[in-house]
Amino acid sequence: MILYRLPNAVVEYATTWGNQLIRAIELNFGNIKSEFDTTYRYTSNGYTGSFYDTTTQTAAVINTAYAVTLNTTVISNGIIVESGSHVKFVHAGIYNIQFSAQVDSTASPISLVWFWLRKNGTDIPDSAGQMHIQGSSADIIASWNYVDQFAAGDYIELMWATDRTSTRLLYRGASSPVPAIPSVILTVVQEARV
User: Fold this and answer.
1) Does pTM surpass 0.70?
2) Contact (Cβ atoms closer than 8 angstroms) between residue 106 and residue 166
3) CA 108 – CA 59 distance, rounded (Å)
4) CA-based nearest residue to 157, from 189, 178, 114, 186
5) Is the per-residue pLDDT at 173 higher than 70?
6) Which pLDDT band, with edges at 50, 70 and 90, does 25 fall under?
7) Is 149 helix (H, G, I), strand (E, B) or coil?
8) Half-sphere exposure (CA, 13 Å, Cβ side) for 21?
9) Do residues 114 and 144 make contact, with C-beta atoms less than 8 angstroms apart?
10) Nearest to 103 by CA among 162, 60, 174
11) How far apart are CA 1 and CA 7, in angstroms?
């Protein structure tokens, strides 16, 4: 940061001296503002992504981690989906990740369902949530949100598992007057740059 020297005071406050003083103050405040904006203030660049899936997702084996798939992109600005489940951050930042899932059961016993996040292939500690679902044709909307910091090139996966193969993430087609229900909706919004 370049600081500009204030002019020395003169015995008589001439217009030239006053103008120099004002210019020096303006330049210094401009430098301070620039330093603050680039170093201290977190501002969003507007990176965002909105994705959903139009398939019913099932668990072939109980108590096994499965990556939630996303096959439809609504908005993609600095956030992309790769390999069907990797939500990749093109730019570093602090991001808010939200999801909702239509959880369904085809059998009557109570089943457990878990959701959590993986970052670059490793489970994020303390990111899991658990829910119970009971009854044949029982539907529950699961939803959580997470805020975390990511480097450019990082990716996350939304993971899920269940203790019964009768539990699934259900897609429902449109049925008047209701539009289709995605099995999963996931949105990512940048909260701040780093």
Assistant:
1) yes
2) yes
3) 17
4) 186
5) yes
6) confident
7) strand
8) 9
9) no
10) 162
11) 19
